[in-house]
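To the structural biology subgroup,

Please find below the input and predicted structure for Adenylate kinase, which we are adding to the shared reference set this quarter. The sequence is reproduced verbatim from the submission form. If anyone notices a discrepancy with their own records, reply to this email rather than editing the shared folder directly, so we keep one authoritative version.
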Amino acid sequence: MPAVALLALFVIQLFRHRSIVVVGRRDSLDNHLYAGPKAAGMSNPRILLLGPPGAGKGTQSSNIVEAFGVEHVTTGDALRSNKEMDISDMDTKYDTPGEYMDRGELVPDAVVNAIVEEALTTADGFVLDGYPRNLEQAEELEGMTDLDAILSLSVGEEELVDRLTGRRVCDDCGTNYHVEFNQPEADGVCDECGGELVQREDDTEESVRNRLEVFEDNTAPVIDHYRDHEGFVEIDGEGTPDEVWTELKAAIERKA
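Predicted structure (tokenized):
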């Protein structure tokens, strides 16, 4: 068996019981996953949500889950929950995923591809965000599943920096807040569970600008790759969350 295939098989087995599908909280693959009520006339749409860090993919993915009854498949939370995993025997630049993330660099494709493929095999309809991040991953995804709608959120760089550096996340349940808007009722305390609100290490300004540069170099070409897909729609992501959701929902209903 080729070395690449052996590596992929190893990673799939390694991640089989890890948290890789997230809908507001981390759930094991072995548990039943939350799925909201299906919208009238829809049948398990397969949705890809694209956009730079801070574009609102997490917020809008939650809306999609609730409205269309699909599962939320994301790599970001899975990688953050496994930041300290030892990958030193996988011929990688660093020994843990966290070392890539803290520097604003991308985690190796072999690890990410295995996470996504395992998640999609269990999903009966999904919204996928955080993947693909480069053209090679886009080609991998084409071999995993067909897509009904491909939605791209467009937001300017300085708006993204303001959003991300001001973001605070509950250390217990993962709920997002912001220091200027969407503030909690009590400073530094999560409204949902009472957990402590923290700034993620990859939300400092230096790391954010690094991440946006990586996105422009690697993931912006992915958006161009999908522009000719019949399900592709570009969405203005600089409106309020409700305004963006109205446009997203209408696009899904047209395409899926």
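Summary notes: The chain has ten helices and ten strands. Strands lie at 19-22, 26-28, 46-50, 71-74, 126-129, 149-154, 167-170, 176-178, 197-198, 232-236.

Regards,
Lab coordination
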